[in-house]
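Exercise 7. Given the encoded structure of a 258-residue chain, write a plausible sequence.
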């Protein structure tokens, strides 16, 4: 008795055959292809509308692929090189994902990274600052004198003279920033300034600044949960970089271009 007939006679379950959900000029699009997309999207029970949308996307994809082949684009050297590079990227990304899945960031590593951030921010302060920056020192001194004499408001002076056009539109406002995030000369002047007292001109690589610190406060430290995803991503990238470096050390690498 033939295997198929025997299986039916015994009431055995036969393996499900992957059905075709669509065809494009005779080329089949399988149900497996649709399910693979939902699997990649972590959708276990797609709705009818979601399935229709994915099927239509796959149809459009095949229509375009067939037209590209018809025009001979897949035979062009530069396009073939790009296709090869894309294929290699897929392999590399899957390798790295597989590796990080086996070498995941631990809770201990996350906690240690967070503790280091807290330690680094413990004595930090942030400042609400506004500034005017010009290229010429003499002009900066002239503007500063006019501000002190109340001949012009800080907001109007920033809009009229400052070359920092982004801040100038807001009257020179830089809003709240960690004092350590400023370029050194500017940051040092901000930290030394008295609240609401004009400071300057302060020279930096950007020009000559007139600075006014409107307020200051201790840096607000985000909670562990608020930073968890950022820490996880950063530590994962660090682990991957170390993995790549370890592979380079094992490989025989020769770079000919100096």
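Solution.
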């Amino acid at each position: 008795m033939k295997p198929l007939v025997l299986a039916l006679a015994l009431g055995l379950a036969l393996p499900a055959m992957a059905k075709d959900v669509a065809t494009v000029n005779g080329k089949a699009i399988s149900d497996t292809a649709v399910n693979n997309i939902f699997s990649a999207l972590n959708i276990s029970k797609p709705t009818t509308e979601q399935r229709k949308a994915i099927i239509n996307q796959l149809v459009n994809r095949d229509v375009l692929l067939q037209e590209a082949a018809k025009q001979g684009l897949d035979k062009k050297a530069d396009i073939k090189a790009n296709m090869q590079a894309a294929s290699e990227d897929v392999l590399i990304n899957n390798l790295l994902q597989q590796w990080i899945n086996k070498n995941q960031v631990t809770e201990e590593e996350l906690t240690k990274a967070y503790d280091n951030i807290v330690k680094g921010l413990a004595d930090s302060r942030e400042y609400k600052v506004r500034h005017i920056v010009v290229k010429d020192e003499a002009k900066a001194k002239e503007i500063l004198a006019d501000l002190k004499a109340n001949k012009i408001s800080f907001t109007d002076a920033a809009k009229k003279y400052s070359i920092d056009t982004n801040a100038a539109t807001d009257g020179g406002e830089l809003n709240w920033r960690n004092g350590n995030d400023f370029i050194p000369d500017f940051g040092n002047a901000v930290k030394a300034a008295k609240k609401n007292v004009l400071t300057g001109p302060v020279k930096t690589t950007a020009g000559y600044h007139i600075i006014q610190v409107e307020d200051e406060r201790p840096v607000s430290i985000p909670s562990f949960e608020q930073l968890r995803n950022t820490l996880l991503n950063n530590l994962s990238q660090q682990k991957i970089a170390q993995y790549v470096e370890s592979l380079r050390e094992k490989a025989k690498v020769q770079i000919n271009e100096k």
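Remark. The longest strand covers residues 207-218. Students should compare their own answers with the one above.
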